[in-house]
Specification:
It is built from 6 helices and 10 strands, in the order E-E-H-E-E-E-H-E-E-E-E-H-E-H-H-H. It is of the alpha+beta class and 224 residues long. It starts with a strand and ends with a helix.
């Protein structure tokens, strides 16, 4: 049985979050599993599209995706990821280290082998990364798909340094957007109603994954 940490994050004034739980599969993938080309194949088998590998810098702006769910696999390094709240100041030092953020949310230590399945609408912000390195897109393209004739070959050539994560989104559901808060005020239910994927990005049909843990009945949303 897979051990899954579930986090239910209620809406804030600025962030819709989701009725579906954020899923954290802590240490799910072993070192031998963490070859990007192998993870890509697993994503593809489960109907998810690999779109990027980023090396994260010291911090970033809190954001969410309004129309697509996301999976992030930690390949190398350690960091803290803050989920569920918006930044309330554009200054990254203030919103990361000095409390310029909404109340609530949850902070999770992330390390290689961890997998996060993030419902549409759930805010996230990665910071305090180790080893220290500047932010960079490591895959060919613009971060919305791997632009290469042979994707597996391109992924196998990626040099992983610093804190890196690999991201995927359900196939045929469009690209990710970058929403920082307020933009969806008054239409949170539209974000909450993004269709549930047929399979979990890494666990496929396993009932201990989003397949069994996320609800998809109209009655569920009607109670929100």
């Amino acid at each position: 049985m897979v051990h899954v940490n579930q986090y239910y994050l209620p809406p804030t004034n600025l962030i819709p979050n989701s009725p579906q739980p954020l899923l954290h599969y802590k240490g799910l993938l072993s070192e031998s599993d963490l070859r990007p080309e192998n993870i890509h194949n697993r994503f593809h088998q489960n109907g998810w599209k690999t779109q990027w590998i980023f090396r994260y810098g010291p911090t970033q702006q809190s954001h969410y995706h309004s129309a697509v769910h996301e999976c992030m696999v930690v390949l190398t390094g350690t960091a803290t990821i803050r989920f569920g709240v918006a930044d309330t100041d554009s200054d990254l030092d203030k919103n990361t280290w000095s409390g310029a953020r909404e109340n609530g949310g949850v902070e999770i230590d992330a390390r290689s082998g961890d997998v996060f399945v993030i419902p549409a609408g759930v805010a996230h912000k990665t910071y305090d990364t180790t080893p220290a390195a500047p932010f960079a897109l490591l895959t060919p393209g613009r971060g919305r798909g791997i632009q290469a004739a042979n994707v597996e070959e391109a992924l196998a050539k990626v040099e992983l340094t610093g804190f890196t994560m690999m991201g995927a989104y359900p196939e045929n559901r469009g690209d990710w957007d970058f929403i920082i808060g307020k933009e969806d005020a008054g239409r949170f239910k539209a974000v909450w109603s993004v269709a549930k994927p047929k399979k979990d990005p890494v666990l496929g049909d396993d009932p201990d994954s989003l397949v069994g843990l996320w609800k998809d009945t109209p009655e569920f949303y009607a109670k929100i």
